[in-house]
Write a structure and sequence with these properties.
Rossmann fold; six-stranded mixed sheet; binds adenosine-5'-triphosphate; nine-stranded mixed sheet; binds magnesium ion; single chain
Length: 395
């Protein structure tokens, strides 16, 4: 078998002394994502090269790698010995497998002792294809229909006809752990994904209010976590009951402030879970001024209840921009399933948009046993674990 998957990254290559750490983390994630679909995964001079298992489904490999943070692009290609005859023959095979009128051969050598330089390899292999393809095609170096890529490394050469885009960023698991406040809407799954792409491991926390006990309600949350687990490969989900606190809030807090108080109590719950998980920040799907709870005044009141940094990577995006991402990531369809969340339930017709922290704190101080109820909610949380398909289904 001379099939090879060639994986490229960029940001991690810039990390100086830590480079090896990031490369190893990416290689490990590739191994986990592919499971038995790959025979070997190796770091090789600025790239990761993987030999697929016997009979491995290329479409499944493509789908799994397409999602992995840290990968800028990858290719399903072939290996060849480092001599010009072999490179010509293999390039011709790639050309024969495609329909095109114009092509270019793009060569790169990381082995500088190879007798030809990159331009010479490209020109010579291109000429070989022109002579032997058996039909008229032309070379077009700027806008070719087919690009044949050649990489000459210290051990062998790789050839491929297509670069498949990955998400870029950094391999998950290299930047510590955060909690994501996952609502079941469109935004918070996208926010979680953006943080995964920065290298963090995301632990999900869903706060379940009383209207959600209907059959199948948390199924939607689990579907979202399952989709995102294909990105970070293993996940933990806390489902925290909110009914008792909700009733208390309704009893003590005027309707127009409830949404803010709900979210402040969510922050307190998240703070407790964060301590248990040793997570270093809280992620939310907030986008400035998108809904009433997201004015600057209200966000200040909500975030004041958190004792960790609150990261909201969608803060400057509008809904359409987030929807485009949700579709790419594959969370949109699950998010679109109707679901009564805390903030749509018991919402006042005219919620406060300029909350005063002192006033909110006065109302909260009147709620008996609030601290104990937060601790009780966390103690009653259900914890579920998820693994990506490469790990669980054995391929
Ligand atoms: P989303 O699409 O993420 O639900 P949204 O625009 O509907 O966002 P809100 O419902 O006001 O906005 O929620 C803002 C943020 O608060 C969410 O992105 C999420 O991080 C957090 N949040 C809201 N409800 C819950 C919940 N039930 N459990 C956990 N987090 C929640
Ligand atoms: Mg919501």
């Amino acid at each position: 078998m001379n099939d090879r998957i060639v994986i490229h990254y960029d940001e991690i290559a810039l990390k100086g002394k830590n480079r090896r750490y990031f490369e190893e983390a990416l290689a490990k994630n590739v191994r986990t994502a592919l499971g038995p679909l790959s025979q070997s995964v190796q770091r090789l001079y600025g790239r990761i090269v993987c030999t697929p298992g016997e009979g491995a489904d290329r479409e499944v490999i493509r789908e799994r790698l397409r999602r992995l943070p840290g990968i800028v692009h990858f290719s399903l290609g072939i290996a060849a010995p480092k001599d010009m005859n072999a490179l010509g023959a293999r390039a011709l095979e790639i050309a024969q497998a495609h329909h095109f009128e114009s092509f270019a051969v793009k060569a790169r050598r990381s082995d500088k002792s190879f007798p030809l330089n990159s331009a010479e390899i490209g020109a010579e292999v291109g000429a070989h294809v022109l002579r032997n393809l058996g039909r008229e095609v032309k070379v077009d170096l700027t806008h070719p229909e087919l690009r044949i890529f050649i990489e000459v490394t210290h051990t062998e050469a790789f050839l491929y006809g297509e670069k498949i885009k990955g998400p870029g960023g950094l391999p998950t698991g290299t930047a510590g752990k955060v909690l994501s406040s996952l609502s079941g809407g469109i935004d918070s799954p996208v926010a979680s994904w953006m943080m995964m792409k920065r290298g963090v491991e995301v632990v999900f926390v869903h706060i379940r209010n009383e209207t959600q006990f209907a059959h199948g309600a948390v199924g939607k949350i689990e579907d979202l976590v399952r989709t995102l687990t294909e990105v970070q490969l293993r996940s933990k989900l806390y489902i925290v009951p909110f009914g008792e606190l909700q009733r208390r809030i309704i009893a003590f807090v005027p309707a127009k402030y409830r949404m803010i108080v709900y979210r402040r109590f969510m922050m307190k719950i998240l703070g407790k879970v964060a301590r248990r998980e040793k997570a270093k920040a809280i992620v939310t799907g907030d986008s400035l001024a998108q809904v009433a709870s997201q004015t600057l005044d209200n966000l200040r009141c909500i975030q004041a209840a958190a004792d960790l940094p609150v990261l909201s990577p969608l803060i400057g995006l509008n809904k359409e921009e987030t929807v485009v991402l949700a579709r790419q990531i594959g969370t949109f369809d699950s998010s679109a399933v109707p679901y009564p969340d805390c903030c749509s339930f018991m919402i006042a017709p005219h919620p406060e948009t300029r909350a005063e922290l002192e006033e909110i704190e006065r109302y909260e101080a009147a709620i008996d046993d609030a601290e104990a109820m937060v601790a009780e909610a966390v103690a009653q949380a259900e914890v579920r674990k998820f693994v990506a398909s490469g790990k669980s289904a054995g391929g």
